[in-house]
Structure formats: structure tokens, C-alpha cells
């Protein structure tokens, strides 16, 4: 066909189309019978060759089996007219698909997701919003460009689809889909089940709805740390003793990003145990303690003590403390514990059990001294005691014994020896002793042996004896005639008493005296008369009278 002939056909077709449109402008039915594809900006119609396709404003001629009307407005209704050589093929209305843009999800909670999008180019009548968790689906028609989808399940992945519907209320545009997880619910009943110096054990009840795992975070040490777990319990380790930590537990959805609200708990790890608790001094009413501070941190120390009947405690920031106002001779248990900064969390206690020193015994008295024994008595001390330790030194060796009584007779001593006796109250541990009270004294010397009168004159008497068993310092010789008492001392075992009166009865006593010049043994004595002279036939005669015999020795002076 020549170019002129084609032009003639188009001209006639356009004229016929114009007249047809003018006559049927008021009526337009949907294009249901022709085959074609409608997009947001194009309508493609299947035709035979040598047909023209027109929307009224746009017209194309096709010499193939399809004709496409381009550059259309999305969501708009167009009258599509197809004219071919053999006459009118179609006269119907078709609507381009509206297209939404920039679909976003925001303000995600445990039960809702807020969707918004940009109004599509062209026209749209309303929007269909659909959502599903692959088990339950729902939809909603709205006219605006945003919607808050509610009544969702926490921690679940939802697929949200928004479709623009054209003005014919039938044609749907290309859908836009966004997939989001709702926030998991908050975990329930976060509990600290155990606290040590280096770990904290956490447990909780899983949240309502769904979750994928839990994120556990903790801060307070050298650096911030976190980990994840699928369980509803976790033991956080490698912590520093006595440090305040904040632990946060959060449920995380399946996208590993969407998190629920965090539940947190702040607490101190236990301080470590104090080191090297030492008792520096024990008195009757006080105990001095010292220690080395624990590893890690601590705020202060709590000192507790009890005697089994009354509990007491105090605090200090120092590593030493003197506990006072205690009772003598009583067993006390002392505990020292490091306390954390919350004034509540305590480490394990280090303890010492010991007795205070008993008080000193009162009024130590020597009630009797013999040549081989010393009897002691005293008043019990104030406070408590378990028994008494008696020690004595001065003899062959040091000796000791114990008694629960307030009196004791020390026997098997050596006569005339100086002994030191010590009496000490001892506490219930049989080791802790009070101050010692002592007394030093001599046992009585033993009696001298075999006191003998070796010579008697009118003015003197010679005595001799054998020294006593045991020790002595010297001898005291005493003599009396009933009217006048005389005495002297000697270190010898013989003595000549002079300046006596002739013919007078004298009593002589010889006593061994100990080294204190006071303690003496029992006396050995002799009673006798000194010689008395008389004249017989001009001769001086002396009589030697033995007081215990019935005879008189007569001596004649030549």
C-alpha cells in the first residue's frame, strides 16, 4: 500500500473514532473480553495487524499482534478503543494499576506495628493492608497512607502487604511488602539465685508470646560484657569480688535485632574473704584483732563476737580492731566479714574462737608451813576460770599441778629451802592464763639432831648437835633461867653458853633458822643446872647436878 493510501486509512479511522467517542462518551464498560496486560503506566492489547489503539488522548497504530499505550497515569481509567480495517473491535474502559512507594514499618511494639507509605503517583481509591504470620491472616481497607496494625502477638514475624486499589475499586496495583518482628514481651520475674565473689546466677520466666533467645548484659567491672542464651537461666562468671554490677536481660526476636524491653537488676558480688585473721593481744577484758584486706573491693568490715549468750557487732574501715568490755575467762567467737558497698552483701566470715584471760586470783595466803609442806589458799578471781595452775620452784626441780579448788597443800618439799609458789587462773581451753600471783617463802628447817651437853661449869654450858636434815642458814640458841631470856646465833653445830649463874637451872633451846632469818624449825631443848661451889674442910667443892638423875658428882679442888 502506498503512503498516500495509508494516510487515507488513518484519516478515515480517526474520523470514525472521533465520531464514535462523541456518541458513546457517557457509557463505558470494563474491558473484560480483550486480551492484554495492564501495568501502572501501560496498557498492552493483543490485536491483529493493521489496527489502531487509542485512549482518546493517545493513539498508536500497530502492524503486529500487540499494541501498547505508553506513558499512562497510574490508577487512572482509560477508554480503550481498537479499530481495525474490518471495523471496531473494542470499546471499553481499563484502569492502570496504582503503585504505592516507600512502605516503612515503625513504632514496633509487642502487639502493634505502625505502617506508612508515600501516596502513589496517579489515582487510587483506597489501600488494602494485609498481614500474616503464616498461620493467621487478616486485612484492612483504609483511605489514608498510614495504619497502626494492632492485636499482634509478641515476638512473631509478620509480613505486611499494602496494595493500592484504583478508582474502579477493582484494579489493584503492585503490592509492597515489608516483614517485621513484633517486639518480644519483657521477661518475667528476673531473680538472682546465687551470688559468689566471682559469679552471679540469674534466672527468669520466659515472656508471653514468642522469642528466639535472650541477651544478657552486665556492666560494672573493667568493661561492659554481654552474651546470649536460649535458656531461662545464666551464670555470669569471671566477676570481681565486692563490685556493683548491673545485669540486663532482654528477649530477642528471630531477626536477632528486634528486642523487647530490658529488665535489669543491680547488685554487688560478695567481697572475698579477709586474709590472715590474727589475734595480737588478749587481756582479761579485750581482744585485739588484725587482718589483711581481701582481694577485690569492699566497703567496710563487720566484726561480730559472741560468748554463747549475748551477740555483739560493730563495723570498721580499718584492718584492725580492739574488742573491749569483755568478761574475763570467757570463750568468745570472733567473726570478721568484708561488706560490699550496699551495706548488705557480705563475704564469707573468717573467725577465731578463744578465751579471754582470766582475772588474777585474789588474796593468796599461806595458811601453814611445815618442814615438808606449804598450805596455800586464795579467793577466786572475778569473771570465769576453769581451774588453777600451782607451780613451785626452789627444790630439786620445777614442779606444778592443777586444782579446781581455791586451796592446795604442796607436799614433799625439802626442809629449810626457799620456794616460790605461783597460782594462776586458767581458762577453759587449758592454755589461756591470767596473771600469776606468787609468794616466796622458806619451808621450816627440820629439827636439829642429838642435842648434847658436853660440859657444865658454874658459869657456862657447852652444847653440840648434829645438823638437821635439809637446809638451814644458822642456828638460834636460846636460854632462860625463868627470869631472864637470852639468845644468840651461830653457824656451827656447837656453842658454849657463858656468863651463867652458878647453881641455877637453865633451859637451853637450839633451833635451825632458814635463809629468811625468820622461818625456824622446831626447837630441841635441854634443861639443867650450872655447877654450885661450897666449902668442905677448907676445900672448894663443885657439884655437877644432872637434872634428870638422882645422883650428884662431887669434885674436890686440890
Descriptive report:
Strands 4-3-6-7 form a four-stranded antiparallel sheet, covered by helices on one side. It folds into six domains: 3-95, Sandwich (Immunoglobulin-like), CATH 2.60.40; 99-181, Immunoglobulin-like, CATH 2.60.40; 188-268, Sandwich (Immunoglobulin-like); 275-355, Immunoglobulin-like; 362-442, Immunoglobulins (Immunoglobulin-like, Sandwich), CATH 2.60.40; 449-545, Immunoglobulins (Immunoglobulin-like). The model is unreliable at 1-26 and 544-558 (pLDDT under 50). It is rod-shaped, with a radius of gyration of 64 Å. It has 558 residues and is mainly beta. It contains one helix and 45 strands.
Topology of this structure?
Elements: H1 3-23, E1 36-38, E2 43-46, E3 51-54, E4 59-62, E5 66-69, E6 77-84, E7 87-95, E8 99-106, E9 113-121, E10 126-132, E11 137-142, E12 146-149, E13 157-165, E14 176-181, E15 188-195, E16 200-205, E17 213-219, E18 225-229, E19 233-236, E20 244-252, E21 263-268, E22 275-282, E23 287-292, E24 300-306, E25 311-316, E26 320-323, E27 331-339, E28 350-355, E29 362-369, E30 374-379, E31 387-393, E32 399-403, E33 407-410, E34 418-426, E35 437-442, E36 449-456, E37 461-466, E38 474-480, E39 485-490, E40 494-497, E41 505-513, E42 524-529, E43 532-536, E44 539-545, E45 552-556
Antiparallel strand pairs: 1-2, 2-5, 3-4, 3-6, 6-7, 8-9, 9-12, 10-11, 10-13, 13-14, 15-16, 16-19, 17-18, 17-20, 20-21, 22-23, 23-26, 24-25, 24-27, 27-28, 29-30, 30-33, 31-32, 31-34, 34-35, 36-37, 37-40, 38-39, 38-41, 41-42, 43-44, 44-45
Amino acid at each position: 500500500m502506498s503512503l498516500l493510501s495509508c494516510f487515507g486509512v488513518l484519516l478515515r479511522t480517526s474520523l470514525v473514532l472521533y465520531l464514535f467517542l462523541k456518541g458513546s462518551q457517557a457509557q463505558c464498560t470494563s474491558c473484560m473480553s480483550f486480551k492484554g496486560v495492564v501495568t501502572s503506566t501501560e496498557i498492552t492489547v493483543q490485536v491483529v495487524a493493521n489496527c489502531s489503539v487509542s485512549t482518546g488522548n493517545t493513539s498508536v497504530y500497530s502492524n503486529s499482534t500487540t499494541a501498547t499505550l505508553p506513558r499512562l497515569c497510574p490508577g487512572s481509567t482509560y477508554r480503550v478503543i481498537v479499530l481495525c480495517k474490518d471495523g471496531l473491535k473494542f470499546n471499553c474502559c481499563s484502569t492502570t494499576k496504582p503503585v504505592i512507594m516507600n512502605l516503612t514499618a515503625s513504632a514496633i511494639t509487642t502487639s502493634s506495628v505502625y505502617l506508612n507509605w508515600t501516596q502513589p503517583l496517579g489515582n487510587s481509591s483506597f489501600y488494602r493492608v494485609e498481614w500474616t504470620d503464616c498461620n493467621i491472616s487478616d486485612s484492612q481497607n483504609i483511605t489514608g497512607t498510614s495504619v497502626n496494625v494492632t492485636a499482634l502477638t509478641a515476638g512473631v514475624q509478620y509480613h505486611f502487604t499494602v496494595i493500592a486499589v484504583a478508582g474502579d475499586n477493582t484494579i489493584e496495583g503492585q503490592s509492597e511488602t515489608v516483614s517485621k518482628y513484633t517486639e518480644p514481651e519483657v521477661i518475667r520475674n528476673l531473680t538472682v539465685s546465687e551470688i559468689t565473689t566471682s559469679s552471679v546466677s540469674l534466672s527468669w520466666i520466659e515472656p508471653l508470646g514468642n522469642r528466639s533467645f535472650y541477651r544478657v548484659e552486665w556492666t560494672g567491672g573493667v568493661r561492659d560484657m554481654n552474651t546470649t542464651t536460649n535458656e531461662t537461666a545464666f551464670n555470669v562468671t569471671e566477676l570481681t569480688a565486692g563490685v556493683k554490677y548491673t545485669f540486663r536481660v532482654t528477649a530477642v526476636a528471630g531477626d536477632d535485632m528486634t528486642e523487647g524491653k530490658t529488665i535489669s537488676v543491680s547488685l554487688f558480688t560478695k567481697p572475698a574473704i579477709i586474709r590472715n585473721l590474727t589475734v595480737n593481744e588478749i587481756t582479761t577484758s579485750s581482744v585485739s584483732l588484725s587482718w589483711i584486706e581481701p582481694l577485690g573491693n569492699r566497703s567496710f568490715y563487720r566484726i561480730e563476737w559472741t560468748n554463747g549468750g549475748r551477740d555483739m557487732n560493730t563495723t570498721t574501715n580499718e584492718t584492725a580492731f580492739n574488742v573491749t568490755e569483755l568478761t574475763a575467762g570467757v570463750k568468745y567467737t570472733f567473726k570478721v566479714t568484708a561488706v560490699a558497698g550496699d551495706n548488705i552483701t557480705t563475704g564469707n566470715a573468717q573467725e577465731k574462737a578463744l578465751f579471754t584471760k582470766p582475772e588474777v586470783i585474789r588474796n593468796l595466803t599461806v595458811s601453814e608451813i611445815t618442814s615438808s609442806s606449804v598450805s596455800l589458799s586464795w579467793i577466786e578471781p572475778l569473771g570465769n576460770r576453769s581451774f588453777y595452775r600451782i607451780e613451785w620452784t626452789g627444790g630439786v626441780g620445777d614442779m606444778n599441778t592443777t586444782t579446781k579448788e581455791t586451796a592446795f597443800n604442796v607436799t614433799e618439799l625439802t626442809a629449810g629451802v626457799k620456794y616460790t609458789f605461783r597460782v594462776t587462773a586458767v581458762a577453759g581451753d587449758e592454755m589461756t592464763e591470767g596473771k600469776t600471783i606468787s609468794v616466796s617463802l622458806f619451808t621450816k628447817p627440820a629439827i636439829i639432831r642429838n642435842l648434847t651437853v658436853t660440859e657444865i661449869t658454874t658459869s657456862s654450858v657447852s652444847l653440840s648437835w648434829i645438823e638437821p636434815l635439809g637446809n638451814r642458814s644458822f642456828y638460834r640458841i636460846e636460854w632462860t633461867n625463868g627470869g631472864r631470856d637470852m639468845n644468840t646465833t651461830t653457824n656451827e653445830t656447837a656453842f658454849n653458853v657463858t656468863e651463867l649463874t652458878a647453881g641455877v637451872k637453865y633451859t637451853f633451846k637450839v633451833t635451825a633458822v632458814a635463809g629468811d632469818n625468820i622461818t625456824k624449825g622446831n626447837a630441841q631443848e635441854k634443861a639443867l643446872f650450872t655447877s654450885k661451889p661450897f666449902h668442905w674442910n677448907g676445900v672448894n667443892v663443885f657439884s655437877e647436878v644432872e637434872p634428870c638423875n638422882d645422883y650428884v658428882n662431887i669434885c674436890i679442888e686440890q
